[in-house]
Design goal:
By secondary structure, the chain is of the alpha/beta class. Helix content is 42%, strand content 18%.
Length: 294
C-alpha cells in the first residue's frame, strides 16, 4: 500500500538513534538489542524509501534526507504527545531542549529555575552541544564561527575573560604581577581553549606558558575545580560574576580581554519556537551584561 504509514516503533527507534547517534546507547534507552535497533532502522528506511543514516564513517550520522525527515517529524511527535496526555486528562508539559557548551552547565544549573518560574510546568533537557545535532534541539548556544554565521546563528554575547581563583588559594599563593602566575598552579582544559595565551598577551607577558597543574577534559569541571582552590583558572566574566559577588572567587588582577569566537544562539524553526524565543530573550537579559568591565 503506497500510502501506508511507517510503524510507530520504527519512528520511535529513529528518533532515539537520531538523538544519540549511537546504536548501543539507543539500545540501552529502548531496552532492546543492538541488532534489533539496526533491524528497525533498516525496515524504516525501506518503508520511507530514504537512507536516513550514513554508516560509512567511524561515527554514525544523519544524512541530509534523515535530517529533513527528523525536522518534519518533530511537530507531529509533539502533537502525538499532547494528544496522549490530553486523553489521560493530564495537562501538556512543554519540553524545551537546549544544547550548550559544557562550560555553561554550572551557570545554567544555578539560573534555569528562574526561567522555569516564568514558565511553570515546562520540562527542560540540557544537552551537550558537542553530542547533539541542531535538528534534535529547540535552541543551541554555539561559538559564533564563520560557519555558524552562514547558518544564520545570531550573536548572543562577546566573551570577556579574566583570571579567577579562590580567596584561600590567593592567600596561600600571593601574586603581585601577572608574570607570577607562570610559577603558580594553573588549571586548563583538554584540549586547551587557549584562554591563558590570550590573557597573558593582554597582560603583557610574552613568555612560554608552563603545562597546567590540572588539566580537565570536561569543561564543566573547570569552575568547580577553581572554586575548590585547585589552581588559577580563566573564566568568562559573565559566568563568574555571581561567584565573585558572593566572595567565592576573586580576580587577582584587574585585567580582562576579549576572547574569540563570541557566543551565538540559534533557534530551531521546526522546534518549540515560542518557548525557544522566550528562552533566548531571557538568557540575553540574564547572561549578557551591558557593562562587564573593570
Amino acid at each position: 500500500m503506497a500510502n501506508r504509514l511507517p510503524s510507530l516503533r520504527g519512528i520511535e527507534t529513529f528518533l532515539c538513534v537520531a538523538e544519540v547517534l549511537n546504536y548501543r546507547l539507543a539500545s540501552e534507552r529502548l531496552n532492546v538489542t543492538v541488532s534489533a535497533i539496526s533491524h528497525r532502522i533498516q525496515v524504516l528506511e525501506q518503508e520511507v524509501g530514504l537512507q536516513l543514516f550514513d554508516r560509512g564513517h567511524r561515527r554514525l550520522r544523519l544524512t541530509d534526507a534523515g535530517t529533513a525527515f527528523l525536522e518534519r517529524l518533530r511537530p507531529g511527535i509533539r502533537l502525538l504527545q499532547d494528544a496522549t496526555m490530553a486523553s489521560r486528562g493530564e495537562p501538556a508539559r512543554p519540553l524545551l531542549r537546549i544544547a550548550a557548551p559544557p562550560l555553561l552547565n554550572g551557570w545554567f544549573l544555578q539560573h534555569l529555575g528562574q526561567f522555569q518560574g516564568r514558565h511553570p510546568g515546562i520540562r527542560i533537557e540540557l544537552l551537550s552541544s558537542g553530542r547533539r545535532r541542531s535538528a534534535s534541539v529547540d535552541v543551541s548556544i554555539v561559538p559564533l564561527t564563520a560557519l555558524h554565521q552562514r547558518a544564520n546563528v545570531e550573536l548572543l554575547m562577546n566573551i570577556a575573560i579574566s583570571v579567577v581563583c579562590s580567596p584561600a588559594l590567593l592567600a596561600a599563593n600571593p601574586v603581585t604581577e601577572p608574570r607570577d602566575l607562570l610559577r603558580s598552579p594553573l588549571i586548563d582544559t583538554i584540549p586547551s581553549l587557549k584562554g591563558w595565551n590570550e590573557w597573558f598577551l593582554a597582560a603583557g607577558v610574552d613568555e612560554e606558558i608552563p603545562p597546567p597543574a590540572l588539566a580537565l577534559d570536561d569543561q564543566a569541571l573547570l569552575y568547580p575545580a577553581v572554586l575548590e582552590g585547585r589552581g588559577f583558572g580563566i573564566g568568562m566574566r559573565s559566568l563568574t560574576a555571581g561567584y565573585r559577588a558572593a566572595g567565592l572567587l576573586v580576580e587577582p588582577f584587574a585585567i580582562a580581554c576579549n576572547f574569540s569566537p563570541p557566543l551565538g544562539i540559534k533557534i530551531n524553526e521546526v522546534g518549540n519556537v515560542r518557548l525557544a524565543r522566550a528562552f533566548a530573550a531571557w538568557i540575553n537579559e540574564r547572561l549578557v551584561s551591558p557593562a562587564d568591565e573593570f
